[in-house]
Write a structure and sequence with these properties.
Blueprint lengths: L14 H15 L8 H31 L6 H19 L1 H10 L5 H35 L10 H18 L1 H4 L4 E4 L4 E4 L6 H40 L6 H40 L7 H24 L4 H7 L12 H6 L4 H8 L1
Antiparallel strand pairs: 1-2
Helix pairs in contact: 2-3, 2-4, 2-10, 3-5, 3-6, 3-10, 5-6, 5-8, 5-9, 8-9, 9-10
Length: 358
Amino acid sequence: MLPVLPFPANPFPNPLLHQDMQRHTFKSASRGSGSLSPTGHLVVAVCLGFIGTFGFLNNLLVLTLFCRYHTLRSPINVLLLSVCVSDLLVCVLGTPFSFAAATQGRWLIGRAGCVWYGFINACLGIVSLISLAVLSYERCCTMLCRMQADGTDFGTAVAGVCFSWVYALAWTLPPLLGWSSYGPEGPGTTCSVDWRTQTPNNISYIVCLFTFCLLLPFSVIMYSYGKLLSSIQYKTCVSSLQVSNVSTAVTRRREQRVLVMVVTMVACYLLCWLPYGVAALLSTFGPRNLLTPEVTIVPSLLAKTSTVINPVIYIYMNRQVLTLTHTHTLSHTHTHPELLCGVVSLMFLPAVSMVTFS
């Protein structure tokens, strides 16, 4: 007679059993692998307050401009709009909970709230990353194939947005069904995928998540923009030897400015998320107490900072914003409605205006 196994032989355990195990360890895990000092929790709370406030205002500003001004409604901007929506939702549905937890030094809304927080932040973060990958691929196809962008064809852009959200859901729902789980991380005031449990069930999910939601999109982004940069350099050399039509030259410069904006956005996104990815892998495959709470909370804060950076890049990559600060007039907005984006943004960043006028 075969012996009875104490646990399921299936490496992907029964969801109910898995949830019972996670519930049993939640209280101790929510205290983190250590504890920040009261001053440390205060610093984290201040950072989260800044990120949540300015991330919300910046993304809300961009969304308002999209809705109000027709000239901003282009297919390429639909993908950027998807990034803004996901970042805004992080500021509304995620950051307030971690801010409240940091002010009290502990997680406040229980295991169900922790699972919700981990799921929504993981899903929306992947939406942003996949949207940027789709955006890079769209730019590559448009410019390398010498296609004239159709400002009225939103089909491809909408399909890219839908793909980004469905893809993110496909990779963030499994922990709710028993393949890995969501739980506390760092000092216990934030929640994410369970990076610390070193079981086949958990490690297999983390490897897949890293491969298909980090490595693969990064590869698409780097390949697409590498090809685009090479193409732009080549076309610049060729055009310098030819007499170009004025409108063609203006169009080409506009395309290059858009490309620089998106490349900068991607670079900042990598700067925000790469430390978090490295910390997650070290937590999964390294010794259990390798990373202290102080070390783990920094990458988490950097990742959340992307919600502030993306809309700022979108606004200030417009060259003509500085012209507005010097002229102190809105007369150009009648012929260039897109300049309104820069005008309104100055209300939120007065320091930029002060430096410019000085």
